[in-house]
Write a structure and sequence with these properties.
114 residues, HIT family, subunit A, binds guanosine-5'-monophosphate, five-stranded antiparallel sheet
Length: 114
Amino acid sequence: MGDTLFGKIIRREIPADIVYEDDEVVAFRDVNPQAPVHVLFIPKQALATLNDASDADATLIGKLVLAATRWARQQGFADNGYRCVINCNRDGGQTVFHLHLHLLAGRQMHWPPG
Ligand code: 5GP
């Protein structure tokens, strides 16, 4: 895949409010938050979309989800709850083509989404 602005955030070429990092995952606050807490968890090894994930990426995707849930617990809002979203391509509303998981929390979410 081509480089995206999320690649630039991983490499610290553009600024971001990074809240979590390990060997495989980086998380930073969304520049246009849709909830009081809105953090994007991204794999350092870039996949463009969820469609590009294969069995070889199962562990990585599991780590991405678990990094988000662990951070939610550490921040103290896991029991109240939160929403995890991965948008895929046009109909999913994806705008940045580096796979990312949105972690939204701090307000009551509604269903179905718009
Ligand atoms: P998508 O629509 O692809 O699922 O989500 C992309 C997200 O990236 C959007 O929520 C958008 O606000 C966020 N975003 C876009 N550009 C930047 C940026 O430069 N910095 C940060 N922190 N977030 C960004």
